[in-house]
Every structure is written in structure tokens, then in C-alpha cells.
Amino acid sequence: MTNVCRPSAGETQSSEILLRKACRVVIVNWNSGSRLHHCLESIPSEFQVVVVDNASSDHSLDDLCNQDRLEDRSQPKSLTGSNGEASLGCHLSKWQRSHRQPRDLRIIRNQQNEGFAGAANRGAAGCASEFLLFLNPDVSFCCETSADVMLCLLRVRPRAAAATGRLVHWPHRRSGGRRPRRSCNLICPLPTLWSALSNVLFFDEVLQRPMVRRMSPKDLCSTVSPEESEPERIQQAPGACLLIRRAIFEKLGGFDSSFHPAWFEDVDLCKRLANLGLEIFYHPQAVFRHEGGYSVDLIGEPEFNRIFYCNMIRYFKKHHGPGAVVFLRAAVSIGNAMRRLFHILT
């Protein structure tokens, strides 16, 4: 693939700034603790940032808003929930004045957990920017130019609808580096019935061929410099770090909120992009830190498995029909029985 868009070498600083100003960063927060602050501190000030909070109870929004909680009346009505919650515009708060942060920061507080898809759609509503960058709170920029190469790639490739970057595992500061490396499997092909059955019945673990993979071996190899690596077309980009054209996101109707509270809404979006014949790219020069797995720790492994496999079945019902669902439901039941037996024996 021919080289495209290396801002550090060919793009001027002014063009980088213009690209950033054409992008809204949307962060869905749910009890992320200090991760949200670390994420916001890493984002260059030229980006517009919207944080949508899903009724967090952990004080992760502390110091982000003014004490008077001024309502942002410039927000479109679509950002006000049916239950009457207010959209909060928090500008020049105490936290913003004392930290490195985006200049345009807005906080939207949901009175109930609307899930990732619903909250992400709310954060994207009323946007006039050319691009949307969805980030998880446990993802942060490695440097100021982390997103620039992705933005430039979409700008110069008309068929490219979305892009993602290189997510480098980065343990949370309080974890002491001892937590499992759940962030390793994010770049992957769209699931097939065989890959889903292999995951549910643990064939992928036995054969050491996981249903998902983070990136191609050449990108994982420490001897390959990221500067020498080219963007490559992929089938699916993770919602943890997803750049997409705003017009296309709106054309698709955003994320499907039936994938509640999380998981497979990004797979579904990428499948719908593929159905339109649009392209998704992975760019190894767009480097982000990623902790991974914190929401699984919050809800626990059993609840995660229940939600994950329910949404997997929902995805296959939507895109592969009832026949695939019959096989998948049976496999999930067998897999759950195997998992319970394993826990009893160990």
C-alpha cells in the first residue's frame, strides 16, 4: 500500500490544527474513576470533546464541572433525554484551569445507564463536525499527533469511512501492572458462525486461534518500527478507539442501542459499513494507550459472559438469520455448562 499522510513529515502544524477542529471526541463514562481524567489530559486542546456520563456513582466527574452546574442551553434538544435530564456545558471549570485539557469540553449526564450505544449516540447528536472519534475512558493519546494520521487518512480516501489506531496495553496506575492483559484482542475480522462457535466452545483456546486478534504479526513485532508500517484495510474497528465520518454515522442511524449495555454494538456498526461497501482502516502510526477490561472488573466475569453472549446472539440474529442463532444458542448453553463444571473442578 502506498504511503499516505504522515503529518509529522509532510503536514504543516496549521493543517493538523484544522483537522483536529473538524473532529468531535465522544467519551462514554461509567464509573471509570481517574481514567477519565487521564484520558482528557491527553487530548489536544483543538478537539471538541463531549463526555456522556451513564449515571456514574464513583465521583469520576468530580472537578470537571463548575460548582454552579450551568445548563448549556446551546445544546440541541436531542441531547436532552426523555426523562428530562439536563445537558451540562462545563467550561473553564476549576479542573480545566489546573489541568491540560480540551478547550471545548461538554458534559452530558444521563439519569440512568443508557448503555454505550445510547450514550455514544447522545454525544454525537447535533454535531456539525466532519469526524467523530469515539474513545473509551481507559484510552488516551500517546502523543498530540495520535489521531492526526487517522484524520488525514479519511480526508484523502473517499471510500474510507472509519479508522482505528495501535492500542498499546497500558496498566492503570493503581493496578501496579499486575492486571490481566485483556486489551490484547481488539482488531479482528467480522465474526463468522464458525469463529463464534469456536469462541463459545473454547476451540479457539485449544487451537490457540482466538476469534479476535489485536493486529497483524508484523505490527506486533518489536523489530518493526511503527514509522515504517503502512495503514491496512480491516473488517472491524473497536469502539474503544473508533474514528468515523459523521455524515456516514448519521446515515447509519448511529450505534444500535439494542446492544445494551455494551459489546457488539461496534461489530454491528462495522458490519453495516461493510454492507455499504465502505472501507475501514487500521493505522499503526496512530498510537494510543489502552488499559482494557475495567468495565468487566466492575460488573464481574459471570455478568460479562451473560451480556456478551446475549449480544453475540443478537448480532447473529440480525445479520445471519434464525438458522445461525439455533446453533449458537445451543453452543452457548453447552459452553456455560462447561464453564460451570470447570469452576467446580478447580
Textual characterization of the structure:
The protein is of the alpha/beta class. The protein has one domain (13-191, 213-294): Spore Coat Polysaccharide Biosynthesis Protein SpsA, Chain A (Alpha-Beta Complex), CATH 3.90.550.10. Helices cover 36% and strands 18% of the residues. It contains 13 helices and ten strands. It has helices at residues 13-21, 35-42, 94-98, 115-124, 148-156, 193-200, 203-206, 217-220, 246-251, 265-275, 294-299, 301-320, 322-345, and strands at 23-29, 48-54, 87-89, 104-110, 131-135, 139-141, 160-169, 232-234, 241-245, 279-290. Strands 1, 2, 3, 4, 5, 6, 7, 8, 9 and 10 form a ten-stranded mixed beta sheet that branches. Helix 6 packs parallel to helix 13 and helix 12 (301-320) runs antiparallel to helix 13 (322-345). The radius of gyration is 20 Å and the shape is globular.
Question: What descriptors fit this protein?
Answer:
346 residues; alpha/beta; Spore Coat Polysaccharide Biosynthesis Protein SpsA, Chain A; 13 helices; 10 strands; 36% helix
Could you give the topology of this structure?
Elements: H1 13-21, E1 23-29, H2 35-42, E2 48-54, E3 87-89, H3 94-98, E4 104-110, H4 115-124, E5 131-135, E6 139-141, H5 148-156, E7 160-169, H6 193-200, H7 203-206, H8 217-220, E8 232-234, E9 241-245, H9 246-251, H10 265-275, E10 279-290, H11 294-299, H12 301-320, H13 322-345
Parallel strand pairs: 1-2, 1-5, 2-4, 7-10
Antiparallel strand pairs: 3-4, 5-9, 6-10, 7-9, 8-10
